Amino acid sequence: MFLLIVSFFPNVQAKLRAALENALAELDKDDEREAKRRKTAKTVEVVDLITEEPQAVVCRQSSQDSLDSSQTARGVKRQASFHTPSPKKRLFSPDSKGRDSQSPGSQSPGSQSPSSQSPDSNPVQKRKIEQLKKTLGQGSPVYYRLDYLWGKAAEAEAKPGLSPDTASDRQKQQQAENLQNLQQKASQAEEKLGLEPAVGVLTKRQGGRPLGSKQKTKRVPHLRKKRRDVTARTKFSMMEDLDRAAVEQKSRRAARQHVMRLYGVSESFCFNLQKDYHRKKVRNFLASTGRGQSARQAGSHLGLVHLVSKSTGRRLPDPGKALGRPDFLQPVWSETRAWALTEEAIQHVLTSTDVLMDFEERLDKAIAVRQAEQEKGLLDQTGEKELAAMVQKKASLASKPKQRSKYQIQLLAKLACAARAPGVAARWRISLVARQAVQNFFAPDRQPVGVVMPTILVTYGKHCRLENISQEGTWIKSECFQVGSKTVRRRAGQRVLGQVMRTWRKLRATQPHLFADGSVRVWCQPAAVVDSVIYRWQLELESEEHSQAVQLVDMFGGAWTTESMHAAALLQRAQTGIAAGCTGLSQVTDIGFAQPAKAALRRWQEDLKQRMREKARQQKVHCTYKTGPADILEAARQMHARMVQLNETEKTVVRCMRQGDWFHFRPDSEGRLQDCGSQKWCLDFPEGNAKLGGDHLRDRSRWVDKTGKVLPWTEADSKTFDESKAFEPEATYLLGQTGIHLSFRAKPNLLAQSERELREVILRQVHPNQRRRLFQEQVDQTTSQTKTEKQQKKEKRLKNAKQDRKRRKLLKEWRQQQANKTKKQALLSVVPKVGQKKAKKKASKGDKKPSEPGSEGHLHGKQARVIGDLAPQTLLGKIVVCGKQTDSQVLINADGFHEWVSHTDITLDVRDRQFPLVLDFESFPNAAASASTRMSHATSARQTAC
């Protein structure tokens, strides 16, 4: 309640008495005018007793209380005395007499004046007069309550120094009273029990900003209406989008801007998603909960009641039982887990989509097997529950996208492998540049020596070299290069930005022993590949190692740009390349180092995984197989150490140069080419290898005459070069890397089962994404199962004709029933009926009883082999005896065990054969062959040899 307080000061007491006397004199004359002016404009007059003249403010009310427009001029403001308002809103005015005399005609003609009343008959006026007489002799200042003047309160005077009564004050007073009550109870308990209580107040932080703070953020239209936390599952998808955009646009900032436009989030939020520790936090949360609804710390968002009532113990299962509900889908996802581990073992990077699709395929097979067992009555109670759970899961995955994405995260948590998590596969592939050199080759009096040069590891990041950054964080050498339309200039001694190779610089400072020997150099490139900038730095490095050299490089774009060849010429490098399609046949790295280095990498990976699993077991968390820069560098060191060891023990560099047919000639002191086969250092290194055919080594010396001079190039040689085909040796090499030798000319007649097994061996080496694409191509070539437009029109026509016949028959019956009846009489005879059940059709006496399923057909008594996928696994590959059969199934007998299987699950060929590993290439899809070729091409190490 707000109080209006009016103060009277001592220097105006005389004026106050005069005003009050005038007011008492006018009370006798205002009774008649009171009723006449009830509908006039009512005023609230604020009297300033310090000034000479009173001031009035007229407040116009509703149209019911306003003056009549026909009798009062528009816009005239009237002043009223304290007699004019109703008794509940009276105020005193000293000049009411003069104002009343100036407006005698304010009363409307149609109004009726009530009988005059004396002040004694009006209790309100009498009470006010008495109260005013009492206050004349009191001292000042005096505070009057405005609600008393309005007639709403009996107390006239207000206490000085009052403050507004607000809800916060009442709440504080209530808290103080509660605290006082607690203290009293504590004192009573202390007296009775002899205790020493400690009283405290548990406060709960209220939501929102603190009192007095301003709004720090501005709303952005069309983005988000409310602030809310992003779930961990959504953060995973955003991380995947960030990585994909960073690879496509070659810029982390552009990737952040893309995600900002896509999701409507801030740049700082996207920047945090790119940090490793934030990703680790979200991944650990998903692995522990499997729901992904939030990523807050446990208990931080709970109320006081939840924190107090949180249980501190844990449940223990009964002997022979487990806590929680049983997982009826475990037989399915356990197979998916075994499959995923197998795919990972052959270096296939699986995503969450790959895992979910494999789970759905296995779920369909499990449902088909259990439904077949249910039809035969062989399914127990547990199998019934498993079937119900599988059918429900299949329906939810097919009809609910939200449930599908949720179970996708749960499935990843069950498999417990970070390699299949979203956002990881985008940055798994990095480049390793293996370099070799042969010294003393152009010195006839010295023996050539092969050397394995330091390896270059190209990772993701801006164009940069770690050895060009000092420990203080400054550039050691000046460098200049151009990326797109932007020129990058770095000066020696200039400060390096904080984010450039930040993790590698920190690793060099914390673990310097990994960089001490200089066996592996770490460079960065946005896509982790060797481009013209990286190759330019490689040329500068090799010029420091050897002032002059013949450069033997791959046919990749970065090495053969105009700028790269110009730089090679300036640095005294005679650059030559390996012919296209012959990388696996003649490159030193692929011939002697790729396979042993990859084998060493796989062994080190298995050891690392074993250590990670042991550490996760000790920490009691799921193993995520998360690796860092130290692990990547150690893997590169292991591969480099293996290559150095091979070269020291077997002279692999010189041996591979001879096997690749590079060291067929060697210049003598006069500059003529001499055959190396008769020299002493070549006796242990034969020329050629198993991959090179006889065509490559034929006429090897025809372009050099007997004296050792090189013959000029002729037009016949040009035509021979144009007609040459490099695909056949490359394809032979690629297929040989997979352990499969195919003859493209042989066309043997193989059994379908053996040919399918051979195709499975080939397709097993292909990534699951390519397998599904190949299968979809075969499905697209299959005959369509939908009805043609002509068949649909025919069925529709027959259906309409049947309905027309039925309508004509009913119309004929209705006409016979109507006869001579009128429409009204016929309508009364038609009684509507609802809720009637359809009568079941009774079997006629001539109907035959259903015979037992199956009959003795052409398969009865014959032997067959079980080969189908839907057949019981215990019978797969066994020889059985066929019994009765139906149109789609046959009853088989395997050592007294009877089982119904499909016709497609058995074959009558039970002979044991040994089939050569040869495939009819024409029967194999072209897409599969190309995919297998690409896969093998990707697995081969196409690194740069010096």
Task: Summarize this structure briefly.
This protein is α+β, with helices and mostly antiparallel strands.
Summed up, the helix count is 30
Major sheet: arrangement of strands = 20-19-18-17-21
Mean pLDDT, as a whole number?
72
Please state the overall shape, judged from the principal axes of the Cα atoms.
extended
Looking at the chains present, what oligomeric state does this protein adopt?
A: single chain
- Beta-strand portion reads 5-15%
- Calculate the terminal CA-CA distance, rounded to whole Å: 93 Å
Largest beta-sheet characterization: 5 strands, antiparallel
Rounded to an integer, what's the Rg over CA atoms? 49 Å
Helical content, roughly?
40-55%
DSSP strand tally: 21
Unreliable residue runs: 1-12, 39-116, 220-227, 294-313, 418-427, 724-753, 846-851, 914-946
Helix- and strand-based class? alpha+beta
